[in-house]
Write a structure and sequence with these properties.
alpha/beta; 10 helices
């Protein structure tokens, strides 16, 4: 195991704690998700040995392969797998099978497909992904549609447990302004499901701003994992 990985993890956790205290928040309220995109499955084992209990992936093929690659990986005690990438409806079954939480539900058809994949199984935690840009082609529902999608999930998809909202801060905009808009969408979801308190926001470069705006789940990759390996 690389001592550098441990050092990076400790450094980021210290920065998270500082940002939380600066915002008048308890660091214990925050969940740090380590994004292991493009890294080998062994990294998840190494992270688990360092106490990491939440990891994130954004490609279906990768999360499925990592969970299947090694017997000990499938049974890592207490590790939760968060899917944070865009989901094609046709891959909903595979995503659900490999994930403990899906942060990127952005349309009725996807919610329906995730529910249909295992309607009588253990509840799947989900977040409504909000598009904070003016580009309708980006992932996420428009802020004005957030409450309606939340209503659909709550009423039509009983095997999904709506936890809150997720978003990525747009390039070229101050993250603080974007995350303030996300907080408004979070309020809209809580008006539908009062205990849907997750705000999944903040990555390696902007997690301090996300914390200040109320984020509860931080998706941090390279600041902890180091540079991503080359991939095809």
């Amino acid at each position: 195991m690389s001592s550098t990985l441990a050092q990076r993890l400790a450094d980021v956790d210290a920065r998270i704690a500082d940002a939380a205290r600066s915002a008048g928040r308890d660091p214990a309220e925050l969940t740090r998700i380590v994004v292991t995109k493009f890294h080998p499955a062994q990294l998840v084992v190494d992270l688990a040995a360092l106490g990491v209990r939440d990891v994130g992936e954004n490609r279906q093929q990768e999360i499925t392969a990592k969970r299947a690659e090694r017997a000990e990986l499938a049974d890592l005690d207490g590790v939760r797998w968060h899917f944070i990438g865009q989901v094609q409806t046709k891959k909903a079954r595979a995503v659900r099978a490999a994930s403990d939480a899906v942060h990127s539900v952005d349309r009725d058809r996807l919610a329906d497909a995730l529910h249909a994949a295992d309607p009588d199984g253990n509840p799947l935690d989900v977040c409504v992904q909000v598009n904070l840009t003016d580009d309708p082609g980006r992932g996420g529902v428009a802020p004005a549609g957030t409450a309606r999608l939340a209503e659909h999930i709550a009423a039509r998809c009983p095997s999904l447990r709506l936890r809150g909202v997720m978003a990525v801060a747009p390039l070229g905009e101050a993250p603080a302004a974007a995350f303030t808009r996300l907080a408004a969408s979070a309020d809209a979801v809580r008006a539908v499901v009062p205990d849907a308190a997750w705000i999944s926001a903040g990555m390696s470069g902007d997690f301090a701003e996300a914390i200040a705006a109320g984020a509860t789940h931080l998706r941090i990759g390279t600041a902890i994992t180091g540079a991503r390996p080359a991939h095809g």
